[in-house]
Amino acid sequence: MYQPGLKGITAVETKLCHIDGAQGVLTYRGNPIQSIVEDNTYEDAAYFLLYGNFPSTEELQIFKEKLNDNRELPAYVREILDSIPSGQTMMDVLRTTVSSLTTKKLMEDNATQLIAIIPTIIAYRYRKMKDLPIIKPDPALNHVENFMYMLSDKVNKSDVKILEAYLIMTMEHGLNASTFAARVTISTESDLISAITSAIGTMKGPLHGGAPSGVIDLLDEINTTDNISEIIHKKLKNKERIMGFGHRVYKTVDPRAIALKKKIIQSEHLPEWIKLALETEKVTIKLLNEYKPEQNLYTNVEYYAAAIMKSLELDPEIFTAIFSSSRIVGWCAHSMEQANNNTIFRPNATYIGD
Ligand code: ACO
Questions:
Q1: Are both 190 and 107 inside the same structural domain?
Q2: Which residues does UniProt mark as catalytic (predicted)?
Q3: Which of 123, 170, 309, 330 would give a disulfide with 150, using CB separation of 3.0 to 4.6 Å?
């Protein structure tokens, strides 16, 4: 049987993630994403996905120390970063730099290294391209605080909480294209650095890790709450898609959008831009329901990802790389799962030539 894109075909068994698109449910190792985000730090959630249990105090301490030990860029990595031409995208830079890392004996050690170093690579390159002074990681800060600090030279607790929620929620999402690419590479008994290089190359494509910049364009166009209804009406009449709404898997509300919105609303000072996003969501869902009553169109995770990136004043050009800095956890966990119970991927191709 030939199924284009392997749509609907089960290719692996996993204990990492379950998605029920009809009910709007996403769980990591059996735990609903909402409770994982509410009760855990980035480090707890990453450890849980990699090892299957939430870390004890001692396990967490060791994990954090390992992350700290791997956060700094080795001199040769800085040289590579400095030599990549300025026109290359952040995903190109990430792919090239990650591919230069040394393979360690234990796959889990490489996983910790990758989780720790990817934010430093992104922040180093980002500041270099903007002619800003480079900020080294601070061992006193946790993972997400360090990422914010290295990018923007400030650590605002409420911004960190929101970014952390986004990063936890996007760590893992089943057998998406990049995760599949990582598993295929590992299935040949290749190493984790090669698998993650494959995954980053796959994530780069607009059909997968495409940045939520469409949402930013939409909200920039709307600009003020007075314009929402008129602009959305016009777009729907012209049969345009409203960015940040609808999802291929979720046929109800994307649970990540709900959890992310909750986090955003909890923050002390809502930036004007977020207020506009919240109001636009309300009006758009109502209008989508009028124009497309059969489709059940709701907000997806990209909508609030855009709101967060914009309110943190991060450049759209690094959105997909930031997404990769969280999905690295899922890629590593899937690679470890594949290695522990491996069969090489080798599907058939039906010959249709002369
Ligand atoms: N705005 C307006 N209409 C929409 C939207 C939308 N955002 N999404 C779907 N529809 C309509 C389509 O026009 C179509 O209507 P029709 O049958 O009258 O022609 C119907 O709903 C079904 O559309 P499909 O593309 O077949 O639905 P699918 O579930 O395959 O699409 C997708 C999912 C591609 C995400 C779509 O909802 C979309 O284009 N959304 C906007 C882009 C976006 O936000 N992408 C980010 C997704 S989240 C992520 O990738 C992490």
A1: yes
A2: 247, 302
A3: 123
